[in-house]
Amino acid sequence: ILFAEEFARLYIESMNGEARQDKMRSQNARYFKASGFVKFAKATGNRFESVKSLLKVPLLTPTYVFKYAYLSAWKQALTKSQKP
After folding, report:
1. Are the beta carbons of 45 and 15 closer than 8 angstroms?
2. DSSP labels for the chain?
3. Using an 8 Å Cβ cutoff, are 19 and 56 in contact?
4. From 5, 18, 63, 73, which residue has the greatest number of CB atoms within 10 Å?
């Protein structure tokens, strides 16, 4: 998730005031954050953290919920055995 945050920050910092390009950069930043949350959910061993991370994705990028990576992350999170 650190790389996702860094890429998102870079896109936000590179806004130049042109509305069309700024909107595109903002969308890209949200997409990278959503991607980072999905990767974090797959990598963590804690079911609660996985679910919490996956619930943030639709708030950032609603269309990301139709991606295979998101759906498979949910499957993995729900079938994950809880580590003590």
Report:
1. no
2. -HHHHHHHHHHHHT--S-HHHHHHHHHHHHHHHHHHHHHHHHH-S-HHHHHHHHHHHHHH-GGGGGSHHHHHHHHHHHHPPPP-
3. no
4. 73
70 and 38 in contact (C-beta within 8 Å)? yes
Q: What's the CA gap between 83 and 45, in Å, rounded?
A: 7
The amino acid sitting at 40 is F
- 31 contact partners, CB below 8 Å, separation of at least 6: 60, 61, 64
Number of residues that this document lists for the chain: 84
